[in-house]
Design brief:
elongated
Length: 69
């Protein structure tokens, strides 16, 4: 995976994250709480990525074909 692809994914998702955080703040949630939520989401995604990669590495070719299809 290239750095350019990772940067593109980050940049394309940034406006959505900012919008969600802004809406949470507008509804009365504390800024600290909103920040903790987004950090938790980032950590969960960071952990899910290698876990998914490891699971796909041991999955059968038939299962991988079904998922890719």
């Amino acid at each position: 995976m290239s750095i350019g692809l990772l940067a593109a994914i980050f940049v394309s998702n940034l406006p959505e994250a900012i919008g969600g955080a802004t809406e949470l703040e507008a509804t009365g949630h504390e800024r600290r709480k909103v920040l903790r939520l987004w950090v938790a989401v980032a950590v969960a995604c960071a952990l899910a990525t290698p876990a998914g990669y490891a699971l796909m590495d041991v999955a059968s070719e038939e299962l991988q074909g079904g998922i890719n299809g």
